[in-house]
Amino acid sequence: MRVCTWPRINAGGRIAEAALGLRLLRCEDTHEAKLMAERLDAVNRKRQGVEADILDLAMQQAAAQREAGHAVILLAGKNWHPGVVGIVAGRIKEQFNRPALVGAELEDGAVKGSGRSVPGLDLGTVIIAARQAGLLTTGGGHAMAAGFSLPVSNVEKFHAFLDARLAGAAELPNAVDLDIDAALAVSGATVELAQSMATLAPFGAGNAEPLVALSNVQVVKSDRIGRDGNTLRLLLRGADGGRLKALVFRVENSPLAPMLEDTTRPPLHLAGYLRAESWNGRTDVTFFIQDAARA
């Protein structure tokens, strides 16, 4: 449900009809539910395209701001859809390990946006302070996420305010250290173990999903799949001879792609999430790769 359904239900509220997902969840007629599910799937594919178009440009601009020495990344673009700016902000935050705020410039001259922060830097408090200082029209949130709106003429002053209030972000490393919860042999990555880990859910702030490390793993097979080829489907082989299916999302322009697509390279150490998934009455285990390093 988490992997296949929730992004589609959320997509209705992001770029189409917010009530569509709710109607699907409440629907008791199979035929009508199927039609609504197909509609949501189409909306989600559109959302993915809109997001990808914005993300490519936003990543380039974020890298430029990082090189220019900004502690906080703040981006605003014309023709950017306000329904996906929060997702884009999250992707940028993950890539650069910095608070990131992304806004859509609207026709009335306002910018409406969303921000994501990193642990230890309270974005919500700073957004409220910016609103009280007259920089924002609206704004609020909590430590890790916030929403805001402001006149486009205030964007540069708002960026300077963010850099000053969140100056500590400039000292953060460019990458985040991963806290590994368990190390496994590939043969130990079983459906039963994945199902046992799933009993610890729901995962989120304060209860992170267990992060698993696999050592000395060989990529046996690698294929690009998905609408835009932005997902890698892998077959892994461990030093113990065990085999495991794996997926990697958003590999376009990622340093992970060349490492994982070359099946002739030496073994790798991998970090990711072990999940059991059921399809057509069959349950399999899949490893969702988050990072890789040379063994």
TrEMBL record:
Gene Ontology molecular function terms on file: exonuclease activity; nucleic acid binding
The entry's keywords: Exonuclease, Hydrolase, Nuclease
Domain DHHA1: 73-166
Ranges of residues in domain RecJ OB: 180-291
PANTHER family listed in its UniProt record: SINGLE-STRANDED-DNA-SPECIFIC EXONUCLEASE RECJ (PTHR30255)
Protein name: Single-stranded-DNA-specific exonuclease RecJ
Organism for this UniProt entry: Acetobacter orientalis
Biological classification of the source: Bacteria, Pseudomonadati, Pseudomonadota, Alphaproteobacteria, Acetobacterales
